[in-house]
Design a protein that fits this description.
Layout (H helix, E strand, L loop, with lengths): L3 H8 L4 H11 L6 E6 L4 H13 L4 E5 L9 H4 L7 E5 L5 H11 L3 E5 L6 E2 L9 E5 L8 H6 L2 E4 L11 H17 L9 H14 L4 H10 L1
Parallel strand pairs: 1-2, 1-6, 2-3, 4-6, 4-7, 5-7
Helix pairs in contact: 2-8, 3-7
């Protein structure tokens, strides 16, 4: 629940330009697509994917941390991690299944990114369904569980000798393609007004120094 009066008070500590930037960015945010990082151990790759999510308007990132802790490099992510919602699965076991179940609960079809023979080419991918794109660990790729339980497979056409792309490059290519097509479609892809307001409120708070002090003053004045 958003405290409208508190939000109005806190907005006074944020420049008008920043507030308008927040609103403009939120107009282009979506949960129609999301990204899943499964057991990615190289921070620079995870960070580059996070940066691409922000650039292309993806609000949610799901991380499955079975063997490695997902770390984001501020130098590579350029602060983009501040503006996204992370859903981390990092208990001792069943992280992959728990993430999968959560995606299902949130209405996503699960799409494994892999050069599998049965994979759909990116240009042929149907953007109409709410989809979560799973990117696997650098060498092994997407886990057996995800391969067996995914609704589909997706690949990028390649005509050279190299068989695969770096995970961060693959994510950027896929997200650029599907979000560009999404914005040209008549699909209802934008965040609902209430969700935009909730995220806006969090962004306002994250922009204020000594936030607790200002909140205390507001509630005790």
């Amino acid at each position: 629940m958003i405290d409208e009066k508190l939000l109005e008070y806190l907005e006074g500590f944020v420049t008008e330009n920043r507030k308008q930037t927040f609103k403009k960015v939120l107009e282009n945010r979506t949960r129609h697509f999301s990204v899943v990082l499964e057991n990615v151990f190289q921070p620079h790759n995870a960070s580059a994917v996070v940066r691409s999510c922000d650039i292309f308007g993806i609000q949610d990132v799901y991380t499955i941390e079975n063997s490695y802790i997902n770390k984001v490099s501020r130098k590579i992510a350029k602060g983009s991690q501040k503006w996204l919602d992370f859903h981390r699965f990092k208990t001792e076991n069943k992280n992959t299944k728990e993430c999968y179940d959560k995606l299902r609960k949130n209405g996503y079809q699960v799409i494994a990114t892999t050069p599998h023979n049965d994979s759909c080419y990116l240009s042929d991918f149907d953007i109409s369904k709410k989809s979560a794109f799973v990117f696997g660990v650098e060498k092994e790729g997407v886990s057996d569980f995800m391969m067996e339980n995914s609704d589909g497979y997706l690949k990028i056409p390649m005509v050279g000798f190299t068989e695969s792309l770096n995970i961060s490059v693959a994510a950027a290519i896929i997200l650029q393609d599907v979000t560009t097509r999404l914005r040209k479609s008549d699909i209802n892809w934008k965040l609902p007004p209430l969700e935009q307001k909730e995220i806006y409120s969090r962004w306002i708070e994250s922009s204020i120094k000594n936030l607790d002090k200002h909140k205390s003053f507001f509630y005790n004045q």
